[in-house]
Amino acid sequence: MALTFHGSGDPALTNEMLGLTTQLKAPITVFAVGQWLEQHPDIAGQILGAGHELANHTYTHPVLSQLGQLAVSQEITRCAAVLTEQTGGEGRWFRPSGIESEPSALILDEASKAGYPTVVGFDVDPRDYQDPGASAIVARVAAGIQAGSIVSLHLGHSGTVSAFPRIAAILQQRKLAPVLVRDLLA
User: Fold this and answer.
1) Lowest mean pLDDT: which of 95-109, 127-141, 164-178?
2) pTM of the predicted model, to two decimals?
């Protein structure tokens, strides 16, 4: 199963989460927002340096399904350009922002044109971005997690940081090994 994070928010909380992932030996895939990477240029190197994976989550994090073709294309390619500038590569994966269901044909087509033939969704969403508290986040992950799951979490939320050690313990109890998206989908 894969633990994925939407990359945005307070870099101090990101650093705290990266410390926990190292301590708990839990690799993560971060779908980063391009503007966030530009605002915090050290973050990409810290994520990759810790052995994690970095991927594209649009440039400004809009509700992508409400945009036209040109704007969708620009959101994907601008984030790819930031990733390339900061890491030497555009990341292997793309995750659309602001959509709760399957991405539209337009989004899939523009992602493919930008070099992302695989658009990565998730099957476990504890809605940690709503800040329900660590216990609720843990319970929601525990209720949905299974072999092959992709969990959607968010950097920049203190409840998620607090919940992470308990999530890692649940994975260990259930004999579920967290892996990068590239390893899960390989």
Assistant:
1) 95-109
2) 0.96
